[in-house]
Amino acid sequence: xxxxxxxxxxxxxxxxxxxxxxxxxxxxxxxxxxxxxxxxxxxxxxxxxxxxxxxxxxxxxxxxxxxxxxxxxxxxxxxxxxxxxxxxxxxxxxxxxxxxxxxxxxxxxxxxxxxxxxxxxxxxxxxxxxxxxxxxxxxxxxxxxxxxxxxxxxxxxxxxxxxxxxxxxxxxxxxxxxxxxxxxxxxxxxxxxxxxxxxxxxxxxxxxxxxxxxxxxxxxxxxxxxxxxxxxxxxxxxxxxxxxxxxxxxxxxxxxxxxxxxxxxxxxxxxxxxxxxxxxxxxxxxxxxxxxxxxxxxxxxxxxxxxxxxxxxxxxxxxxxxxxxxxxxxxxxxxxxxxxxxxxxxxxxxxxxxxxxxxxxxxxxxxxxxxx
Length: 372
Description:
Layout: E1 4-11, H1 16-28, E2 30-37, H2 40-50, E3 55-59, H3 65-73, E4 77-80, H4 85-88, H5 91-99, E5 102-105, H6 109-116, H7 120-126, E6 129-132, H8 140-152, E7 155-166, H9 171-180, E8 190-193, E9 196-199, E10 206-211, E11 216-222, H10 226-234, E12 239-246, H11 251-260, H12 267-284, E13 291-302, E14 305-315, H13 319-334, E15 342-345, H14 346-349, H15 352-361, E16 366-370
Helix pairs in contact: 1-13, 3-5, 8-10, 9-12, 11-12
């Protein structure tokens, strides 16, 4: 049944993720959708393309506080699909908070979480739900491992997670990745053991692993995130190693160079680094089709029996599933399926099994098998 009567605004609504988010909400809810961005013609064009009486376009400049506040005031929930996240930070979220409306962000990363962490009390007092990191990476990168752990185990001793893939990069996404390679918010070359995050040694930062098709054997690098740390602490996981890489030929070299030579410390450096990442991704796509995979290997116990499982969630396109996850997160919020109010990451805000069940009905495919 489609619930109706609410208005959801999508800032950055005519970008690739924003458009997919709007398309999914129009198809699967009865809510009114507003596609918003700086260019009113692009917003109107996207609204017309998606069709229907319940979708419209609107001009919003996120640098204009009054304009942004007026937009948020007219919505029940705002989804931020604009970027780069490392530049926008809490600009849109702060407007949503001022106007007392719910907020969902498929990006966000650690900088947005840090920027909003002091607002927890005010969010709770206003009864607002703010969910950040509600896309693929971050988002499903934490929720899928949590699903496997909660669905298949009573106790987890060891968890390995692999984030691997390649796709065409937008400039904003490339800027965010470049930003994540340096500074206090950089993803750590670390692992988790018995309640502590431990820095990896030089010779243990990477691992060569055979992953399911179409990835195959690949070398990936430790990247323990704040998102995954919350997942493992909430589920009592003892040991965790998480690895990530781009499976193209050029991208790993470009990203390693940016990190090694610290070429993403300033805004100007990040602009140059983002352009390098975009070009490298385009060249890699000439050699293989797009793909993104979350692969999980878990050891633990269920009903007194020790077992080991492998689980794989994969996509041929990263932008559409990111939009679907953001849209469904908004549905959970606006349809009162989130327990409590405040600031959350996706895996801690929704019932993980219910969320995965909904995604599975909407074409998400994953495999779970026992390893002998």
